[in-house]
Amino acid sequence: MTAYLLNRLITGLATLLVASLVVFAVLEVLPGDPARLMLGMNATPDAVEALREQMGLNQPVPLRYLDWIGGMLSLDLGKSYTYSVPVLDLVKERVAVSLPLAVIALVLSVAIAIPVGAFAAQRRGRAGDTLSMGAAQIGVAVPNFWFALILIYIFAVWLRLVPAGGFPGWSAGVWPALKALILPAIALALPQAAILARVTRSSLVEVLGEDFIRTARAKGLPFDRVLWRHALRNALIPVVTIVGLQFSFLLAGTIIIENVFYLPGLGRLIFQAITQRDLIVVESVVMLLVASVIVVNLLVDLSYAVVDPRLRAR
């Protein structure tokens, strides 16, 4: 177990190092002067040179990389040129929207997908299986922003149950804030639930063909008990993998949904920083999101040892 954990930790750190090199290199090879891009083509040479000095662009590339990594490790992400505030303050403000949104969407996705996948596996080859997987295929094919527009029309415009967009802030109360996140969370959850339901169904169908399942059935155990208490746990590893990937996607890939619902989250922050050429924000926030993806995947790898006892002996 210790060797397994150590191996996963080393792999995660190595991946994080490579990711930092890629993020830094991509912004380095972009054509044009970053300072001039941020200030605009009409900026004076003195203003451009002052911003280059402020951003450390006059230093050698390896030194800039080391300074950037050192700042990330000390949580000094620099100062946004557009907002004139530390990037860390922007991240703290926006993650209070994106993180709850991702968690709610993931919970909804799992709550929908596991029962649907188990229902389809239990009725393999029958009408229930066909209808469930047909609906899941539609969910995979339809983009989440289309679901978002439909949900806005039905629940915000027609029924007027929830707001169509915006975020009142947690200071306005938990319920008003959650109401603003319900529709975007559902729009994010439906395509992910469709993917997870198909994976759950496939994994369960494979496990239900194993010898220990036939033995359990031969002993007279009800099929529902065999399915939920024996088969499902053994089918969880691919399901847990997808759940981890989905949480990473939901946390880092909400740009479209946050813009549709006008939510002040991390996705919208990245979009605004790109359009405003605020490269300091782009570089820092992208690296933080990469780090969060790697940490989540590391936690998923560690959870395998909980799901599969055979890994504990390694």
From TrEMBL:
Alphabetical list of InterPro entries matching this protein: BPD_transp_1_N (IPR045621), MetI-like (IPR000515), MetI-like_sf (IPR035906)
TM segment ranges: 97-121, 133-158, 178-197, 235-257, 285-307
CDD domains per record: TM_PBP2
A single GO molecular function term of this UniProt record: dipeptide transmembrane transporter activity
Name this protein carries in UniProt: ABC transporter permease
Bilayer disposition of the protein: Multi-pass membrane protein
Keyword Transmembrane: yes
Family annotation (PROSITE patterns): ABC_TM1 (PS50928)
Main localization, broad class: membrane
Similarity remark: Belongs to the binding-protein-dependent transport system permease family.
Entry keywords, A to Z: Cell membrane, Membrane, Transmembrane, Transmembrane helix, Transport
Species of the source: Pseudaminobacter soli
Cell compartment(s), UniProt: Cell membrane
One GO cellular component, as annotated: plasma membrane
Domain ABC transmembrane type-1: 95-300
